[in-house]
Fold these 3 entries.
Entry 1:
Amino acid sequence: MSATKFLAFDFGAESGRVILGTINNEKLCLEQIHRFQNRQVKILGHIYWDVLYLFDELKKGLEITVKKGHKNLSGIGVDTWGVDFGLIGKDNQLLGNPFCYRDSRTNRMMEKAFKLISKEKIYSYTGIQFMQINSIFQLLSMVDSKNPVVEIAETLLFMPDLFNFFLTGEKCSEYTIASTSQLLNVENRSWEPAIFEKLNLPFKIMPPIIEPGSIIGKLLSDIAKDVGTKPVDIIAPACHDTASAVAAVPVQSNNWAYLSSGTWSLLGIEVDRPIINKSSLNYNFTNEGGFGQKIRYLRNTMGLWLLQRCIYSWRKEGKSFSYDELIKLATTSPPFKFIIDPDDRMFLNPDNMPLAIVEFCKKTNQHIPKKVGEFTRCIFESLALKYRFIIDRINSVIEKPVEVLHIIGGGSKNELLNQFAANATGIPVIAGPVEATSAGNILIQAIAKRKIDNIEEGRKFVARSFPLKYYKPENIEEWNDVYHCVKDIFS
């Protein structure tokens, strides 16, 4: 096989990356071309994404790629986080910056929604877990507040769809990102009219849905001219970043689960059919779209956001720590003194994360962390125990229990948390690849261009191409005892 090159634009809640993927000799090589900050912008009490800045960085990354000599790209694919969206008006005008999912305007929107349509009915249609950040509640908040932008909007585009529109002029919604909205019928893979009708949401603004692996169109000629390349194909990978990451899991056995570890922790399994029943609803599990007609049955839980916000608060106090320093301090701190529920609402976007952790410990009659290492260990142990909680619930609704946990994404570099995850769950952990999202993005593009036959072959590419680290469970009895003592705090 001759070398084939694809470009992945991977937007996370903290940063964006432009990754060049080269497929050659049955291996995938990734090269970071450009990296940039993604920041939340607070204006008059609301939080937004600076989407024009992000698109400018995307163009900058494409220009750098061309200047490095990579002109003959076979495709470009964009993936981002879920649920957030922009609105397009007449003459293809963007109607303001998209809100950030952490904005407080969705407070109490779930309760308002359930007065109009029951929680059980929404779940029966969508199979999506209930979180106040979901697109359904974001859109409801805009309708409820009579936001004039909704009145003049002609099209709603989720974040990767928005970037694809900027690149091609085509307005459509890729299936995996659409599935995060809680507006999609999980069975027929189309927008659910009953939800829009009951909540009085504007159905007319929803775009047509396309499958991952679809070629959306060519790069607009003016952009191609600006950056010095030809009008290359813009391909929809799995546009939800987690869906792309799961496509790159280097599967080595049956009965596996994945943990996409980063700002959020997304832990689940891949299934052929959605799992929608009372247990699934009570456990607040989600059935999101995956590549190849698969369903990602998972639980979305707070991840390293907890530590990221602690670091932010400590920096404001003039204290700066690297991740390596924090991990070392956590290693030498006493175990199991403070356990929190990462998904408690107080951790969604507090002004001071360490103070929020202290308040939770007080509320649950625990010791109070004081040192930086104690906060860090508290977060890692709590996340690991929450992973056990989630896997226990997965095992309760499937025939054969999970036997191995694949940890992918940036958090897979955290060796202490990886070991804690193995200890808490009692099953082996395989960590890597770090850049799973970009790898999956590029694999799906390669399948679309028939450079790789299918996702099974693509996952073999990943296993051959990236270092993986294995963790065996340790101190299982001690972790098991702690889990049974604290599991009632988890929701």
Entry 2:
Amino acid sequence: MYIEMDCPCQGKNLDKLLQPLILCILAAGGDMHGFAILKEIGKMPRFEDKVPDATGVYRYLKKMESSGLLTSRWDLDEEDDGGKPKRIFSITARGKGCLANWGMALTDYNKYIQSLITMINEAI
């Protein structure tokens, strides 16, 4: 349980980990619209079944598309949700390469974090 304080030490500002999470969701689940991605993010233990800030996630999706990690297209399926168009996101080959890099980087970080946790526990 966290000690109450207004500080990034509670891990709430880990927006950079949205990128590998979104890439992983799309690589594993196939093409999805933004709300479906939001629901998948909300299933992660860190979010405790709370849907993350939609505006921030959509902004991040747009940024990832601009970087060539994702592509999108409009789905005009009239049978779904009253015929409202939805933007469908897909991971690109560049996005899959980025996801592979994240896997290696997070493995390295995990080793470092485990060592740091041990040091913290020994120090307190």
Entry 3:
Amino acid sequence: MTISLLKAIQDYSIPFEKNDDLSAILESVGDANIVLLGEASHGTSEFYSVRAEISKRLIEEKGFSIIAVEGDCPPSRHVNKFIKGYEDGKMTTKEALKAFHRWPAWMWANEEVARLVDWLKTHNEQLETSKKVGFYGIDLYSLFESIEEVVTYLTHADPTGEDLRLAKNVADCFEGFNHSTEHYAMATAHFPESCTAQVEALFSSIQANEQLYPIEFEQRLNLKLNALVAKNAEEYYRTSFKSDTRSWNVRDEHMVEAINEIRKFHGKDAKVIVWEHNTHIGDARATTMKDHGMLNVGQLIREQNPEGDVYAIGFGTHRGTVIAAKQWADPFKVMAVPPAQKDSWEYALHEAGAFNKLLIFNEKNRDTFARWFGHRAIGVVYHPEYEAQGNYVPSIISERYDAFVFIDETKALTPLQFE
């Protein structure tokens, strides 16, 4: 690690000792109307709590009114209805978050998110309906849940019956694959049959007929988002056994489509906060992902919007603990996060001073930090003992993000416990 890099970090970093220190980032956000908040894992308490503090200030000081998260649409809808007062007034925050039951439930059903949801509920109670802050899931894993949402809603709301007929066609098609995304992925990888035509016909019809559905309680938006999930999740699972790159791109393109649908519904002036992993919000063009033909949300959002409208904040840690699992669908565990690998971005931040710090990239220092480093990324499946072989993404940090939050030692988040 070169002395010049360590000195640059020391010269440009801001000690992060209390939440008031986040003011430097809030000032740097300027007039951006889309703020992307990352995380280096899906199981670290500080990443969630700091993102929550930034989000609160963006809402209170800069008029942001949408939080879009790397979570499924149907359970996020429960949270949105709860914080906006659309649900039974007796419902609790914990009951609203219980809707996140699909593995890895801990990503959203945790104490850190619960505290933010409590705050959003209280904040919204002081506002008229049109100004309340919303909470939306923009991921696509909820294929069958979203199809069920569409069919259930259209059974009572479709004035012509045509969209309901198309929705039932979709449900019937997937019924043949035993309601299993894995069966669908395997079958379509080897045989030409698929449900592509059905999901595309449904989404196209709902788009064409959207004026038939009421905007009250965001019914129209919920219908469109779930139909969009059906369309894009079908492609995601159909391509997942054929190409990791294509399925990755389908997923991130979907999340951008979902963000754009939410912005369209709420009006051109609506300001959006996006909570996703660093690998989604940090511009892929500044990583080796581009060499594999991969794109991501951060890249697409920057490409689609004027310069200055988008602000991306990455997060990282040197060591600590994290919630993750050894295999997909296994029970979660608290795991140790070992000290960062030498010659990584996180190692440099630690060596420059073993304390929490903020870095803001601008015209004065972007070139100084424009060099390649491994940047740690921890997923819901994690093997700390092997992380040197696959948990570092070579990146140009000052191009990938506009700012970076470094927590030297972090701890695992706290999943909610349900009876």
